[in-house]
Design a protein that fits this description.
The structure holds two protein chains of two kinds.
Chain A: E1 23-32, E2 39-49, E3 54-58, H1 65-72, E4 80-85, E5 88-89, H2 95-105, E6 106-109, H3 121-132, H4 138-148, H5 163-175, E7 181-185, H6 193-210, E8 213-218, H7 221-224, E9 229-234, E10 237-243, H8 247-258
Parallel strand pairs in A: 3-8, 3-9, 6-7, 7-8
Antiparallel strand pairs in A: 1-2, 1-4, 4-5, 9-10
Helix pairs in contact in A: 3-5, 4-5, 5-6
Chain B: H1 2-11, H2 13-51, E1 57-61, H3 72-78, E2 82-83, H4 85-91, E3 96-102, E4 104-106, E5 108-109, E6 123-127, E7 137-142, E8 150-154, H5 155-160, E9 168-172, E10 178-188, E11 198-202, H6 204-210, E12 216-217, E13 219-224, H7 230-240, E14 245-249, H8 250-297, H9 299-307, H10 312-351, H11 365-391, H12 410-433, H13 437-474, H14 476-487, H15 489-527, E15 532-535, H16 545-550, E16 555-568, E17 571-578, E18 591-594, H17 597-601, E19 605-608, H18 609-615, E20 622-627, E21 631-641, E22 650-653, H19 654-660, E23 668-673, H20 680-687, E24 695-698, H21 699-742, H22 744-752, H23 757-793, H24 806-832, H25 836-841
Parallel strand pairs in B: 6-11, 8-10, 17-22, 19-21
Antiparallel strand pairs in B: 1-13, 1-14, 2-12, 3-13, 4-6, 5-9, 7-10, 8-11, 9-10, 15-23, 15-24, 16-17, 16-20, 16-23, 18-21, 19-22, 20-21
Helix pairs in contact in B: 1-10, 2-8, 2-10, 2-11, 2-21, 8-11, 8-15, 8-21, 10-11, 12-13, 13-14, 13-15, 13-23, 14-23, 15-21, 15-23, 15-24, 21-23, 21-24, 23-24
Classes of the chains: A alpha/beta, B alpha+beta.
Chain lengths: 259, 843
């Protein structure tokens, strides 16, 4: 299965020859509202997400973890600061380039699955490829649906699938273009524990086996334990960093921060 | 991406179908009109073709007026008859197989119970020629007329009114009625009559006597011998003709008649297409609104597409593609329905007294192209705005909880709407003063768009005000309906906008109609001094009526009125002839300069003030004139009178008129009673019993019949506008369905906390009534303003009085509220039937 491993392209190198991180944020701030009711969702965030690693972002509700992800994925525009995907500063891209970036270099998995209800599972998976007007890599497609266990669900509509099946379909869609980076926003938030385990195991596997880079926002310590590293956020700031986490160490860190 | 579009449409079948219905109806109207007019065109072409299929040449007087429109009715008035002797001369030429000199005129059968059969415009009398080679008429029973007592009748009349060969039948003519013996029954080719016209064929010398054509023919038809060289034969015929007489080949006659019919039909087709476009315009509002709402509801889906890599262009194309598909499907359905509607339209026109011949429907490729282009075009143009809004949806919207649709700022809306409104007013003012009807149309359309843009700014307070009584009446459900109509002002306003356009047009027409009606009354008052008006067929009636009436006891002045056409200063115009003696007793000419009766008696021309100022003419001016029978001459203007639509622009004395026309028939006879005389009306009426086609009206009856004529036209316009209103109602149904769908969760909650089904229905109905009333109120106000402006601009063209029919306008408002109630019934039922548990589970 090595042939499916993500390849590192030239643009991923920075000038000094070291490999650029998959994504990074520099002094990122994001404010909502005006005047007296300004809410600072991000308050000067500096963070790097390494290539080929599975990073979890944790924090209580309102800590800014989703906002951080939206800004770094080019879905939302930061108030100030810089966000990079590879060495590309996404603030410098116009809408068309940003769309291309999302389509070709980033994959998304959402809490609420977000499949197009009128398309079948197979059509949902190939949607990014179809939008680009490209050819589907049949072998890669077959591998994904096989690995995710949805090969027999391909002609079903989202409404005819269980939550776990829908989320696995969404994972396949995120990976079909072999993106440089996958952003997963609470991917297990709407799933039961066994479905959660399947999805997380698959994400873990795609990092280990294919060198996929993944950033996952979660508030589940057990989910975070699948990651290589956990970044903790609170009140729009990075407040902690944990490498090789276990459910216990994450929980411990969370408790500490909660105090 | 294409797949997303197509699947999306299919997934929302009901909503798509409902939206498409607006376009289906408009396209039906367009294609129906085209099919109808094509069919009529073909029918008349075939008819003309078969009438002249045997005619090699036609010999006729040269047209006197260069500007005359060559319709069959005008052509004889425009041409001098040709002497009988020509027929004999031409028949002796080598190569001529047969000649048939013919005369035609008005001849209307009377049924056994004394009523005139058919309309006076479609009662055709003519000299009957049994020559099978020259005529398309076929005797199916009996024999040709051979004496002055004989007549042949068309089979349709004979069958319907139970006449048979040997029966006696009374015939109304331009002279006292006469009774004839039916000697034969005829068909026109295979048809039982000629395009609905009744046929009365007489012995040729009798016809010449009946139709004032002693010693002359209207036309002479010539049949060439088989194998004759037509070009040289035509030249040979031309050589023996006296000056002023021409010979043309059969094809020329066919072409002239076809193009005349074509011109008439294109007027009909244009009129119908205008209403079709109005329907499509209203439909465009509905499409725009539906797409706006669905784009709003699909925000998440569209944002998601953007997240996974759809470009703005792809999203834009997706929404427009959806519109194109919907437009195409709707156009195809509309096209099919249009063919069916053509038959319906024929019946509808028939109901309003426009009789049309029967024939198979004609479907031209152009009809399909036009219908599809218009249907797809309107749908796509309407979807451009919503598509642009879809493009502006940020990708992040896929992840955040959906916010209620947010409009652009009120200030921006006010500014943009204001600019369009100013442009609209400018176009309207320019169009009404020019006058240029197209500019008026564009201005009105722009005005509606401007109001559609501005309406959301007043939607909240207006909905609140309109809903207050409902809330008071119905309690909580009414109050909730009121708040629902207030919570998305843009949606409420856009939904109401379609109805606003429909009602604005209806109101404008109502104001215009009321003004016309009031003006007609005042015209009669100001123009007519006579107590009684005798009138008959449009072709005129017997000259013996006027002298006989003047001898009746109590009758004072009798004025005979003739109507004809002449060419004055190079353009064709109507001219009236009146007997000058004691003219002021019957007609109020309201002279502003010169003299009346003396000028008329002296053979001078009177003109109205409008003509005088337009052509810079004054008393003493000499103008060139041409009469068909007497040719070119000049006339001195003897007087100028105040313009009145009841009197034509040009008036001459009766004796002058008679000497310049070929034995004209009176168009009307005005009668004034002697002071103190009673029973004049009864006496005239008793005398006229002998003339079933001539009647007498009092002044009040004249006023009434003028108003009836206006109301009949108004009725036709209302029916045609009803479709636009229906489309607007579909828009309301659609919006309510979308709202019910969108608020499933909320409706479930309301039901869960104890709202009864009945109350859910009341809530939805309240919202519908508020939307409908909102549209209706604005529509009636705008329409009244437009109607008043339109009527005011026609002050000098026959609408001196402006009348606002308040009662009728209030009735429109009540009707709109009821229609809104009707539109709510389906959505209300659907909302009431929602399963509570499932509705709550819906996100």
């Amino acid at each position: 299965m090595f042939k499916h491993a993500a390849t590192i392209t030239e643009t991923n190198y920075v000038g000094d020859g070291s490999v650029a991180p998959a994504a990074r944020a520099v002094d990122l701030t994001k404010s909502y509202g005006k005047g007296d009711v300004v809410v600072r969702a991000l308050d000067g965030v500096n963070v790097e997400f390494e290539r080929g690693r599975f990073t979890a972002v944790m924090g209580p509700s309102g800590s800014g973890k989703s906002t951080l992800m939206h800004c770094m994925a080019g879905l939302d525009v930061p108030t100030s600061g810089h966000a990079f995907v590879g060495d590309q500063e996404i603030g410098l891209l116009d809408d068309a380039r940003l769309t291309d970036l999302r389509r070709d270099r980033i994959g998304f998995v959402f809490q609420s699955f977000n499949l197009i209800p009128t398309l079948t599972a197979a059509e949902n998976i190939t949607l990014p490829v179809d939008l680009a007007g490209a050819e589907v890599d049949k072998a890669w497609f077959d591998y994904l649906v096989e690995a995710l266990g949805i090969a027999d669900r391909l002609s079903h509509r989202p409404s005819e699938m269980s939550g776990g099946q829908q989320q696995r379909t969404a994972c396949a869609r995120a990976l079909i273009r072999r993106p440089d980076l996958i952003f997963a926003d609470e991917p297990t938030g709407n799933l039961d524990s066994s479905s959660s385990a399947e999805v997380l195991a698959f994400l873990r596997r795609s990092v280990t086996e294919h060198g996929q880079s993944i950033v996952m926002v979660t508030h589940d310590p057990r989910g975070a334990a699948y990651a290589d590293r956990v970044v903790f956020l609170a009140d729009g700031k990075v407040v902690g960093d944990l490498v090789s986490p276990t459910a216990e160490s994450v929980l411990e860190q969370t408790m500490k921060l909660g105090r | 991406m294409w797949k997303v579009t197509v699947n999306g449409l299919l997934a929302r079948k009901l909503r798509s179908a409902l939206t498409a219905l607006a376009i289906v109806l408009g396209v039906t109207f367009v294609s129906g009109t085209l099919v109808l007019t094509d069919t009529l065109n073909r029918t008349f072409d075939n008819l003309v073709g078969s009438a002249f299929q045997h005619v090699s040449f036609e010999i006729r007087g040269k047209a006197a007026f260069s500007t005359s429109s060559e319709t069959s009715a005008d052509s004889t008035a425009n041409r001098k008859p040709v002497p009988e002797s020509i027929a004999t001369t031409v028949s002796r030429l080598p190569g001529v197989a047969a000649v048939d000199g013919s005369v035609e005129g008005y001849a209307q059968f009377v049924s056994r119970n004394g009523n005139a059969i058919g309309g006076d415009r479609s009662a055709l009398g003519f000299s009957f020629d049994a020559n099978r080679e020259l005529s398309s008429l076929r005797l199916v029973a009996g024999h040709a007329p051979t004496t002055a007592d004989d007549v042949v009748m068309d089979k349709a009349t004979a069958t319907k009114y139970h006449f048979a060969v040997g029966d006696r039948v009374r015939v109304l003519l331009g002279r006292p009625p006469q009774t004839f013996t039916i000697t034969g029954i005829v068909t026109f080719g295979n048809d039982n009559n000629l395009a609905g016209a009744t046929l009365a064929g007489f012995y040729r010398p009798t016809a010449q006597a009946l139709f004032n054509a002693r010693g002359v023919y209207d036309t002479i038809n010539v049949l060439a011998k088989p194998g004759a060289d037509n070009v040289s034969l035509q030249r040979a015929i031309a050589k023996v003709l006296p000056p002023g007489v021409q010979v043309v080949n059969g094809q020329t006659v066919i072409n002239e008649l076809s193009s005349a019919v074509g011109t008439d039909l294109s007027v009909l087709s244009t009129a119908l297409l205008v209403f079709a476009l109005i329907s499509l315009f209203v439909g465009a509002f509905t499409i725009f609104n539906t797409f706006s709402i669905t784009v709003g509801q699909r925000t998440r889906e569209l944002a998601l597409l953007r997240v996974v890599g759809a470009s703005r262009r792809q999203v834009f194309r997706s929404v427009l593609g959806e519109a194109a598909l919907m437009g195409l499907a709707a156009s195809l359905v509309g096209l099919g329905l249009g063919v069916l509607a053509a038959a319906g339209l024929k019946a509808l026109l028939g109901a309003f007294g426009i009789t049309l011949p029967s024939a198979p429907l004609v479907f031209e490729a152009r009809t399909a192209v036009a219908a599809i282009a218009v249907g797809v075009g309107v749908t796509m143009v309407s979807a451009i705005g919503p598509a642009r809004r879809a493009v502006r949806i940020p990708p992040v919207a896929a992840m955040v909880t959906q916010s209620e649709e947010e409009g652009e700022s009120l200030r921006g809306r006010l500014r943009a709407g204001g600019i369009v409104a100013l442009g609209a007013v400018a176009a309207l003012v320019a169009g009404l003063t020019a006058p240029a009807i197209v500019l008026v149309g564009v201005g009105a359309a722009a005005m509606f768009v401007a109001i559609g843009m501005l309406a959301p700014t007043v939607a909240r307070p207006m909905s609140s005000a309109l809903g207050r009584p409902l809330a008071a009446l119905l309690g909580t459900p009414g109050q909730l309906g009121r708040e629902n109509s207030m919570r998305s002002p843009r949606r409420t306003a856009q939904t109401a906008a379609a109805l606003m356009v429909g009602l604005a047009l209806v109101s404008a027409i109502a104001v215009l109609g009321a003004s016309l009606s009031a003006s007609a009354k005042s015209e009669v008052d100001s123009a007519l001094n006579a107590g009684y008006l005798i009138s008959g067929p449009s072709t005129g009636f017997s000259t013996s009526v006027a002298p006989a009436v003047s001898r009746l006891p109590g009758v004072g002045t009798v004025t005979t009125v003739y109507k004809g056409q002449f060419e004055v200063r190079g353009s064709l115009s109507g001219v009236d002839g009146v007997t000058p003696a004691n003219l002021s007793h019957t007609v109020n000419l309201a002279l502003t300069a010169g003299r009346g009766t003396p000028a008329l008696a002296a053979g001078e021309l009177l003109i109205d003030t409008t003509t005088a100022s337009a052509d810079h003419l004054s008393v003493g001016s000499v103008v060139p004139v041409t009469f068909a029978q007497t040719g070119h001459s000049t006339m001195r203007i003897g007087g100028i009178f105040k313009a009145n639509p009841l009197i034509g622009s040009y008036v001459v004395g009766a004796s002058f008129f008679v000497s310049h026309f070929n034995d004209p028939l009176p168009n009307a006879v005005l009668v004034s009673a002697r002071p103190g005389a009673t029973g004049v009306g009864t006496a005239v009426n008793r005398y006229l019993n002998a003339y079933p086609n001539v009647g007498v009206k009092t002044r009040a009856q004249v006023e009434q019949s003028q108003q009836n004529a206006v109301n009949t036209e108004l009725g036709l316009v209302y029916v045609l506008l009803a479709l636009a209103v229906a489309i607007a109602l579909i828009g309301i149904v659609n919006t309510l369905m979308l709202s019910v769908f969108e608020r499933t969760h909320e409706l479930g909650l309301l039901r869960a906390v104890g709202m009864k089904r009945r109350q859910v229905k009341a809530m939805i109905r309240s919202e519908a009534v508020i939307i409908a009333l909102f549209g209706a109120v604005i529509g009636v106000i705008v329409g009244t303003a437009l109607g008043v402006a339109f009527a005011a601009s026609l002050k000098n063209q026959g609408i001196p009085d402006i009348a606002v029919p308040y009662g009728r306008l209030v009735a429109f408002l009540v009707l709109a509220a009821l229609l809104g109630l009707g539109a709510a019934s389906w959505p209300a039922r659907r909302a009431a039937r929602l399963d509570v548990l499932r509705a709550i589970a819906t996100e």
